Amino acid sequence: MAKTTFKIEGLRELKSALEDLPKAASTTVLKNTLMEAGYPMELEAVAYAPHLTGMLKRSFKIGTRLSRRQKAMNEKESQVEVYIGPGPLVQAITQEFGTKTNSPQPFLRPAFDNGKVAALNKIKTILASEIEKARARLAKRTAKYMR
Question: Which residue in 56, 35, 71 sits closest to 106, CA to CA?
């Protein structure tokens, strides 16, 4: 499985602000940001997916958890990872990559290629907003305990 890594430049201030948050809060901020930014890509992949029985389209998810088999094959590379795609269905793999008798009908790669720039831009915007929300929650919680 090919992996794609992105480096977003110009986010030094956001990174610093994220590091100022407690680890649990920064993890939540990152997860919320990636899930929200990835949602349009998920919708596009569902739209591209072939529709025979509808099982493939219904199995699509965006989340942080993998099946046991997927987890065994995946090497975690960052603090928070979000996965977009169908559940662990054999037909998803055969549709995307084809078989010796059927040609491929890619749906994930085109959705990724079309949505990656928009997702990265959305991450910048959402991340700033999520950091501010987390700061406000922490300030409110701190004020509550200071009374």
Answer: 56
State how far the alpha carbon of 34 is from the alpha carbons of 14, 29, 54, 91, 116, in Å. Answer: 15, 9, 26, 26, 12
Backbone angles phi, psi at 27, to 5 degrees: -65, -45
Q: Is the pTM of this model over 0.90?
A: no
- The distance from CA 117 to its chain's CA centroid, rounded to whole angstroms, is 14
pLDDT of residue 92: 86
Which residues sit opposite 63 in a β-bridge?
Answer: 83
Return the CA Rg of the chain.
18
Helices (H), 49-147: 55-58, 68-73, 90-97, 108-146
| Contact present, 130 and 35 (Cβ < 8 Å) | no
The pLDDT-based confidence of 75 (bands split at 50, 70, 90) is: confident
| Total count of residues recorded for the chain | 147
Q: Which two structure tokens, joined as six digits, stand for 63?
A: 């989340």
CA distance 60 to 36: 15
In whole angstroms, what is the distance from residue 88 CA to residue 54 CA? 15
